[in-house]
Amino acid sequence: MADEVVLVDTWVSMFGMRVRIALAEKGIKYEYKEEDLCNKSKLLLKINPIYKKIPVLIHNGKPVCESLIIVQYIDEVWNDRSPLMPSDPYPRACARFWADFVDKRVYDVAKKVWTTKGEEQEAAKKEFIEAFQILERQLGDHPYFGGERFGFVDLSLIPFYSWFYAYETFGNFSIEAECPKIIAWAKRCLQKDSVASTLPDEKKVYECVVQMRKRFGVE
Amino acid sequence: MAEEVLVFGAWGSPFSRRVEMALKLKGIEYKYIEEDLTNKSPSLLKYNPVHKKIPVLVHNGKPVAESLVILEYIDETWKDHPILPKDPYERANARFWAKFIDEKCLSAIFKACWGACWGEEKEHEKAEIEHEKAVKEVSELLQFLENELKEKRYFGGETVGLLDIAANTIGYWLGVFEEASGVELLTREKFSKLCNWANEFVCVTAIKENLPPRDKLIAYFRNRFGAGNASK
Quick check: A92 and B70 CB within 8 A? Predict the structure, then answer.
């Protein structure tokens, strides 16, 4: 039976990008449905009634939610090619830990960088840099967080790179100045087709963030 | 080579108890180290420099942190009595609900029990509204779990699984919070399935042996957070 794979997503979401990279790594054909988050579709509310968020992967009619859970699902179903997770339990645990770190320590504080001003923004920038410095130390001298190969942690973090220009512009700081290894790592990841074909243009992301700031009333 | 398994935990923490429950279920011997969270040990800071939190599992010198990550590591390392299903969709489902419990339920429950302070007279009405909102939110969240349980004995089916262990906060600690704060949340009329599940859950040997004493826990939370949001 042919697999039916649908991804409900929005182009600018770094969580959605994780899933798109995973699907591209595995060479999986899928139907993409762009969601307007200001006007959520009946479909989204049906397939993710708990959070009402994207991304949602629908595989043969069954929805899977939460980006890191979706990526692990993809890795387990299409387990005959391009593994995204290491094969041994300890490196797998480390991969899960660091992907969880990205969700807990990067996302919220990054959002504050473009949605706040003044002291709150300065505090957010400081935390943002600290989080990336921790990640830099974890990367060490390896080409990827996965070691020699691009893997789960790389995939979890690289989408944020498309938002760096927006963070730097609104935060008035340079991420490269603080974390050069992270930028070098990101450029290395971008040499992969799955990443290059997924990450949107940073200027387009910036324009989108400008609109979002207006909607949130940040200006 | 002899295996060395250490667990750094705190007696009242549902998160470190989860790790012990999983190890007990699989019959794994381990050494438990109680951490004083107001005075963290050099070992804890060495094994979890990033978050500096418990629980940490140290297996033959290698540390694993974050309770749900540890549970998956335990399941992948010791294959007896699996706690995650084999089917990828069911695994994704278990992971989803475990994350739901940690990210949405616990903070909502805390807010309902201890969130708003009664404060001054004029704040009373506002606090009352906030409290009712928080209770309603918990009710909605518990309903999702009630629906997910369906007619199963455990979330894991016939045997206790990762999701049951992750739901220890609902199965035991919630009752403790209710008694400590005087706020009723998991009522039998609304949540008969969840109540039945909680009763079954705390009777499983590997679980029962790893529950902190109820009175001690109630006293601890009352002491730490006050008498709670119950109508006076």
Answer: no
Joined together, the tokens standing for residue B214 give 């109820």
Give the SS3 label for residue B3. coil
Q: Are A145 and A85 in contact (CB under 8 A)?
A: no
Angle at B218 between CA B215 and CA B222, to 5 degrees: 140
Report the alpha-carbon distance of residue B94 to residue B98 in Å, rounded.
Answer: 6
Which positions ≥6 away from B15 have C-beta within 8 Å?
B9, B54, B55, B67
Q: Which of A19, A50, A75 best probes binding to B when mutated, by most B CB atoms within 10 angstroms?
A: A50
Q: How many helices (H) and strands (E) does chain B have?
A: 12, 4
Residue A36: predicted pLDDT? 94
Bridge-based pairing of strands B56-59 and B5-9 is antiparallel
Q: B166 with B19: CB under 8 angstroms?
A: no
Q: For residue B172, which of B106, B114, B223, B82 has the smallest C-alpha distance?
A: B106
Rounded percentage of chain A residues whose pLDDT exceeds 70: 99
Helices (H), ranges, B78-116: 88-100, 106-110
Find out whether B139 and B207 touch, Cβ atoms under 8 Å. Answer: no
Burial category of A201 from C-beta neighbours within 10 Å (exposed 0-12, middle 13-18, buried 19 and up): exposed
- Cα–Cα distance, A107 to A180 (Å, whole number): 20
pLDDT tens track for A153-197? 999 999 999 999 999 999 999 999 999 999 999 999 999 999 999
Contact B62, B114 (CB under 8 A): no
**Token pair in block for residue B127:** 């606090």
Q: Would you say A67 and A18 are in contact if contact means Cβ atoms under 8 Å apart?
A: yes
Residue B12's Cβ-count burial label (10 Å; 0-12, 13-18, 19+) is middle
Interface of B with A in 10-39 (CB under 8 A): none
What pLDDT digit, counting tens, does each position of A60-84 carry? Answer: 999 999 999 999 999 999 999 999 9
Asked if the Cβ–Cβ distance from B92 to A101 is below 8 Å, we say: no
Query: Rounded to an integer, what distance in angstroms lies between the CA atom of residue A13 and that of residue A2?
Result: 28
Asked if B190 and B144 count as a contact pair (C-beta separation under 8 A), the reply is: no
Report the amino acid identity of residue A123.
A
Q: Is the pLDDT of residue B120 over 90?
A: no
